[in-house]
């Protein structure tokens, strides 16, 4: 039968389950235990929150380090190495969107091209044209890639001690363009903080100083030199120079070369090579003796008209497949006669391909 007597528990006591089993506690002890449990649970929650914050900070730091791999300040920037790309100017069923100048500049393998002596002048000319007018049209990634490639070009010139003058002209053009563009910051002309571009301009000034301080090492061999060659061979070599400034520099070596560098036939061929007859007739300069001053005409024509550009190796464009590729690399052409569809692309032509 059920127990009907007085409750054996005294007032204020209760049974509580513990690690050692059930124990009888009073009301005050129960409240104390509850407070301890609440404090433990609160500490545990705080600890969990702290771990969560630490894990979030770790993930943010990891993402930041990963993002910094593509930043200009990283020591090993990433370069694309595509040998060819599609150049499509509209959406089709097969391809969506269009190819921009920045995308082409990012994806094509320009990093390896600057190591090839046949393509070096081509890439330098392309960098110069972009610096003059196309830099604001590049995306932020393309602008970073531009500066990274430029840094490699400068480093190659400093190591090889060759092509110093065109790189000086490139840096001067780029610095002048950045000076005007930085003043228009806030008008969506350059991507990034103004401090980043100020730092890049400081790097350009530092590169210019390094190029000014470069010392050309004299060859150590004691064999035959240019001056030991017959005069006819010396003139033959001079006729192969396509820049009048190189002739002027060569003529400053010694008095004998200075006389050869003033040869009228030499400057006449230079004028006829770079400029059309119509342009030459507009800029005639006659001496007191009634002879044409071909040297003066050449530099006057250079100030009025662009030079004729000639490169050993250029980019090629397939009109059938709309693919842009380097000359010595194959592309997936579907034409019956691929060679008839391919044409060389000048640096200016490369930029014109992406004008919509």
Automatic annotation (TrEMBL):
The keyword Nucleus applies. Transmembrane segments: none annotated. One of its GO terms (biological process) is protein ubiquitination. Pfam families: F-box-like. One of its GO terms (cellular component) is SCF ubiquitin ligase complex. It is found in: Cytoplasm; Nucleus. Keywords: Cytoplasm, Nucleus, Ubl conjugation pathway. Its main location: cytoplasm. Residues 227-272 form the F-box domain. Gene3D superfamilies: 1.20.1280.50. It comes from the Eukaryota. Residues 17-30 have a biased composition (Basic and acidic residues). Pathway: Protein modification; protein ubiquitination. Residues 1-30 are annotated as: Disordered. Part of the SCF (SKP1-CUL1-F-box) E3 ubiquitin-protein ligase complex SCF(FBXO32) formed of CUL1, SKP1, RBX1 and FBXO32. Substrate recognition component of a SCF (SKP1-CUL1-F-box protein) E3 ubiquitin-protein ligase complex which mediates the ubiquitination and subsequent proteasomal degradation of target proteins. Probably recognizes and binds to phosphorylated target proteins during skeletal muscle atrophy. Recognizes TERF1. This is F-box only protein 32. It comes from Phoxinus phoxinus (Eurasian minnow).
